[in-house]
Amino acid sequence: MANIVDVQPTIKWTGRQNRRHFLDWLVKENNITIMAEVGVRDGRTTFHLLDQNPNLRIFAIDKSVKGFYNNNISEKYKDRLIAIEAISIDGAQHIKNKSLDLVFIDADHSYNWVKKDIDAYKPKIKPGGYLTGHDIDYTGVNKAVNECVKHYDIGPNNVWFTKI
Fold first, then answer.
1. Phi, psi (5° rounding) for residue 131?
2. Could you report how far apart the first and last alpha carbons of the chain are, in Å?
3. pTM of the shown model
4. Which domains, ranges and CATH numbers included, belong to the chain?
5. CB under 8 A, 24+ apart: contacts of 115-123
6. Euclidean distance between CA atoms 27 and 23, whole angstroms
7. Closest to 68 (Cα-Cα) out of 54, 49, 52, 85
8. How many whole angstroms separate alpha carbon 80 and alpha carbon 54?
C-alpha cells in the first residue's frame, strides 16, 4: 500500500469530485483536441472524455491495452482513440514533441516512474498546454511532482495540473 500525504485542493471546484469530470471540464474550458492518458487500466476516464468531447483524440498508453481496447472499442472511436501498448515512458516515443494539448499521468505511482513519466511527456505538450496527473496524495507522486514541476494546482480527487 502506498504512503499517503495530506494534500488540500488549491482551486475551488463545485462539480463532481471525480477526475473524469474535472478533466472533462479542463478539456472543454481550454478547447483541448488532442491529449494522452498515461496509464489507462479499464478506460473509464478515456471513454468518458471521448464520449463527452466529440472533437477530442486520445493517445491511450498502458502496458496492456487488453483491459480497455478491443474491436468494438476500435470501431466505436475509430481514429479518435490511439491505443499504445507500452510501458509508460516507451509510449512517449510514439508521440511528436509539442503535439499535445494535455497529458494526464496515472501509471506507476512510484517516485522513479512518475519522475520518468513527467520527463518523457513534458516535451510532448504544446506551449500553453497542460501537464496533469492523478494521486498527488501518494508519497512517490507527490515527491516527483514537487521536484519536476515549479508550480501546480490541485483539483478534485487529488488531480494535480500545471500549464506549460
1. -105, 120
2. 32
3. 0.96
4. 19-163 (3.40.50.150)
5. 115/144, 115/147, 115/148, 116/88, 116/89, 117/38, 117/88, 117/89, 118/144, 118/145, 118/148, 118/149, 119/148, 120/88, 120/89, 120/92, 121/36, 121/38, 121/92, 121/95, 122/148, 122/164, 123/97, 123/98
6. 6
7. 85
8. 9
Residue 102's φ and ψ, nearest 5 degrees, are -155, 140
**Confidence at 1, pLDDT banded by 50, 70, 90:** low
pLDDT by residue (tens digit) across 108-143? 999 999 999 999 999 999 999 999 999 999 999 999
Whether 120 and 127 have beta carbons less than 8 Å apart is answered as no
| Residue pointed to by grid coordinates 513519466 | 117
User: Does residue 48 contact residue 20 with C-beta atoms inside 8 Å?
Assistant: yes
